[in-house]
């Protein structure tokens, strides 16, 4: 049996990018249907209930300064924000020693801090030379895309401790190792976020500054509600896209074998490029586009949260933010709901360590993560009332987080294929954005850009 | 409508690896069916007729010393070999000058030659320290996998000309740029070929030494003939593999919508990892395996041949082998049939230049390639009787050649997932081989290894 729909624009993927694109297509007076593989909307944005009507987010959750498009979306949807909890002292668990410090700069060897600072300044200066629309046209693009970010760190950061701190910061932003990522991509990404690494690293004044009341998934949920159930087809993984001068047919197949076909004049594929490359296209896409999708791997991160009756660390004068050079969890935050009850400790397990975590049994994973919390925040952290985690690499319809990164050679060899439409096919998703690439704000911008192009072509 | 087959081992992909696996499963007294997307067998091994009963190969074609398993296969199938034509002087078109030279070493600046030689020796020495079964266990694996091969060249090769020559050699072996490939992968690959770069570069005494009479596609054709049409299902792209303790169901769908289901106790997926990652698996594969397939891009190469009534360059005392530092074609061979009629000039367009070629119209491609031949071999080369080319990145069921390479971080982060079976699923294909990885010989070895494992598990 087959369900057939006819619209102006078919949209693949009900993440923020796809839903925003649908919103804009409809606002322009055209018709749109969003086809989503999962039984829910939101993609990498997902709430999880923790009882008492409270939720935590196991996907993207933060919003910061200059993220204007996702901020405008929140205003439009009447979703309030509240500041990430940062009051109190942060922890640095380093070289076997646990130190408390205030602000974003730990009290460690000033030589190391100066080394980190000079590296940041240089990376930021270089990043501003990368054109956001065409990174491969940077004057030094060939040299920057010929090396890994790790190679740059080893050559330009003198002290081992500074390299380690920068690796840690890198892992927290890209959820992968600096060795995996082209220096040019790192510079593009920094410029895309405004040209400041502190913007990427920080809570106050940075990309982790604020959170959404009720959880970030309210953004896609409210967008979907406004579109109406009839225009968001859930549980329908898109497997095939036929396209030509007369338009497109987006073909999905439900678990029960029911086929869904959406006929449209244009399509917007709002998936990470690596996943967009797994769809069957007829006619097949040009080699350059297909080979690009072979070069856009997703990062590896597990977002792990322990739940306590209260955020007891606050009484100890701690913010809940900790940085560590050992164990699975190297970075923590206080992720308690706005009211401060229950207390939630959030730990990120990233890159190589996330892959180790992925090989462990659920009980062992929880035990290992809670051990880290206890080492950092004391015995009370050892016995949480609840535990929530998400290993995004295991998710069939995500296959990694936070997003895609480009390895050396990809931007200079294939960059043009990232955003260029192919006939009636447009590309959206956080990776396609020029500004705040890889963030919820970038997802919103990419959806707005793709919708404008698709509508203009109708 | 659905066709259902039941066998012991279902094999996905009728390239050399899949067909050899099927041969061995059947030889062990079990039953096998090979499911192939194309209407032909051979994968990246493909003949093209050029009239008069002669053929040229637009895919893999050579066999060299120590490639014992493909040699044994050829003997078994009674397919003879003949030496690649190398008589005469080679050409070096370098720095605007065209020089003739004998043997494999051009008469250029001895400082440059010494620089190339020291780099080769060092790479070869390092390569022997990479364990073929587990490259990530090399003592220096972390450092070698944290940098691109280009980074190593820039650091360890003093003269620009030597770097350029090594890049050219690299492109001719990997069909990609040294910037795209992890140094650890390059070292693994060299060791996999015996630890000698000359083995990879050379005709006589190297991987390009001999050719197959009647064309290399006779190997898969004869294998398929022995299996019988009923056991090789053509035109059936595999889209889905359901797997569990009770076995597997391999699901394909033909262009006319007919569904094909092969029920088996084990399956061997004999595709390049990047393509294996595009199949839908139920249950979904572990994150480590899926993320590996996001990190195995295929190279980019166009194999272009001009056909002349005779190999006129031979009369000029030329071998037909040329190396150039400009134009689309940087490497040529005499690819005439054993009898020497017609004359065939083979030009490789690789890496970045293959992507440029991919953006050109067919006529412009032919003109650009023939121009290169004319510059190298004189006016007679300007007007061929025929022209044959293959752009493998454009092929829906190949998506690149010669094979997959691993970018930095992939071997150390995901290497274990390349070969490890998952339940009843085994992996084959040239990329999986420990010896002659990426070559026809490696494909044969991988098929033999996977078949032995699958049969042992029946």
Largest interface, chains and sizes = A-B, 48 and 48 residues
CATH second-level architecture of the domain at 2-43 and 217-285 and 422-457 in chain A: 3-Layer(bba) Sandwich
- Assembly status: homodimer
Strand content of chain A: 15-25%
Tell me how many strands of chain A there are: 22
Looking at CATH, which topology of the domain at 2-43 and 217-285 and 422-457 in chain A would you report?
FAD/NAD(P)-binding domain
State the major sheet of chain A. Answer: 7 strands, mixed
The helix/strand class of chain A is alpha/beta
Measured as a percent range, the helix fraction of chain A is 25-40%
Task: Calculate the terminal CA-CA distance of chain A, rounded to whole Å.
Answer: 30 Å
> Could you say which overall geometry of chain A the principal axes of the C-alpha atoms support?
globular
CATH class of the domain at 2-43 and 217-285 and 422-457 in chain A: Alpha Beta
Mean pLDDT of chain A: 96
Any idea what the radius of gyration of chain A is?
Answer: 22 Å
Strand order of the largest sheet of chain A: 9-8-18-19-20-17-21
Instruction: Compute the number of helices of chain A.
Output: 16
Uncertain segments of chain A of ≥5 residues (pLDDT<50)? none
CATH superfamily of the domain at 2-43 and 217-285 and 422-457 in chain A: FAD/NAD(P)-binding domain
């Amino acid at each position: 049996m087959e369900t057939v729909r006819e619209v102006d624009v078919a949209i693949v993927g009900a993440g923020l990018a796809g839903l925003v694109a649908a919103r804009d297509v409809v606002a322009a007076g055209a018709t749109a249907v969003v086809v989503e593989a999962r039984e829910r909307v939101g993609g990498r944005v997902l709430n999880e209930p923790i009882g008492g009507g409270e939720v935590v987010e196991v996907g993207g959750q933060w919003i910061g300064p200059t993220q204007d498009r996702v901020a405008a979306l929140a205003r439009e949807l009447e979703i309030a924000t509240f500041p990430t909890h940062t009051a109190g002292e942060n922890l640095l668990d380093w070289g076997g020693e646990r130190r408390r410090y205030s602000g974003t700069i730990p009290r460690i060897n000033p030589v190391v801090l100066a080394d980190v600072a000079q590296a940041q300044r240089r990376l930021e200066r270089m990043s501003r030379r990368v054109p956001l629309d065409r990174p491969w046209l940077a004057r030094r693009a060939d040299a920057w895309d010929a090396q890994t970010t790790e190679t740059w760190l080893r050559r330009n950061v003198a002290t081992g401790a500074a390299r380690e701190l920068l690796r840690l910061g890198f892992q927290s932003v890209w959820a992968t190792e600096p060795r995996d990522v082209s220096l040019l991509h790192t510079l593009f990404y920094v410029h895309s976020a405004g040209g400041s690494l502190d913007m990427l690293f920080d809570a106050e004044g940075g990309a982790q500054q604020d959170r959404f009341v009720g959880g970030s998934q309210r953004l896609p949920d409210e967008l979907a509600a406004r579109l109406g159930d009839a225009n968001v087809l859930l549980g329908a993984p898109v497997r095939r896209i036929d396209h030509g001068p007369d338009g497109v047919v987006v073909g999905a197949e439900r678990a029960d074998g029911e086929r869904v076909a959406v006929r449209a004049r244009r399509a917007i594929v709002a998936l990470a490029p690596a996943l967009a490359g797994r769809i069957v296209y007829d006619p097949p896409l040009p080699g350059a586009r297909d080979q690009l999708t072979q070069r856009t791997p997703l990062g590896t991160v597990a977002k792990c949260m322990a739940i306590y009756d209260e955020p007891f660390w606050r009484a100890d004068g701690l913010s809940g933010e900790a940085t560590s050079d050992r164990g699975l969890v190297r970075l923590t935050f206080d992720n308690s709901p706005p009211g401060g009850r229950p207390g939630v400790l959030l730990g990120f397990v990233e890159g190589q360590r996330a892959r180790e975590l992925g090989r462990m049994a659920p009980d062992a994973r929880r035990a290992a993560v809670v051990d880290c919390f206890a080492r950092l925040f004391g015995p009370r952290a050892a016995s949480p009332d609840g535990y929530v985690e998400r290993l995004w690499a295991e998710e069939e319809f995500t296959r990694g987080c936070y997003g895609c990164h480009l390895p050396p050679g990809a931007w200079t060899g294939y960059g043009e294929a990232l955003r260029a439409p192919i006939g009636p096919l447009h590309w959206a998703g956080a990776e396609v954005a020029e500004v705040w690439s890889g963030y919820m704000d970038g997802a919103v911008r990419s959806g707005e850009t793709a919708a404008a192009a698709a509508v203009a072509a109708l």
